[in-house]
Amino acid sequence: MENRFEKLEVWQHAHQLVLGIYKATNEFPREERFRLGDQLRRSAASVPTNIVEGNSRAHKKEFIQFLYLAKGSLEETKYHLLLAKDLGYLAEDLYDELQDECNKIGKMLSGLIRHLRS
């Protein structure tokens, strides 16, 4: 049986972002996989996790609060990606691809928040 959150397009994109980040961080230097790599994975995974948790709440207002938490985690993820690129752990093209996906997810989160508020 499919969960309701799995039908949310924003969750689908956020989940794919996490999968991409896990793959990318596997290529980090060994010592950074457990430092920056772990921070990046956690902040990225927090995005779909907050969407899931918010979607399970009984009130729209609570869902909106969790969507804002997801946006905060997304911004944290964007910074970790920038740091990884600047340290030479991510190729420029992979960085651009992941940042583009982050920006798309950010727009989708904002759109969902607007929709829930109306």
Provide a descriptive summary of the structure in words.
With 118 residues, the protein is an all-alpha fold. It has a single domain (4-117), classed as 23S rRNA-intervening sequence (de novo design (two linked rop proteins)). The chain contains five helices and no strands. It has helices at 9-25, 30-33, 36-55, 60-86, 92-117. The model has no long low-confidence stretch (mean pLDDT 95).
Secondary structure blueprint with pairings:
Layout: H1 9-25, H2 30-33, H3 36-55, H4 60-86, H5 92-117
Helix pairs in contact: 1-3, 1-5, 3-4, 4-5
List keywords for this structure.
mainly alpha; 5 helices; elongated
- What is the CA-based Rg, rounded? 15 Å
CATH top level class name: Mainly Alpha
SSE pattern: HHHHH
Per CATH, which architecture?
Up-down Bundle
Total DSSP E strands: 0
How helical, in percent, are the residues?
A: over 70%
How many domain modules? 1
Silhouette:
elongated
Q: Low-confidence runs (pLDDT<50, min 5 residues)?
A: none
The helix tally amounts to 5
- CATH superfamily grouping: 23S rRNA-intervening sequence
Estimated structural class: mainly alpha
Terminal residue distance:
30 Å
Average pLDDT for all residues: 95
> Beta-strand percentage?
under 5%
Largest sheet: none
CATH topology: de novo design (two linked rop proteins)
Describe what is shown at a glance:
This protein has helices spanning 9-25, 30-33, 36-55, 60-86, 92-117.
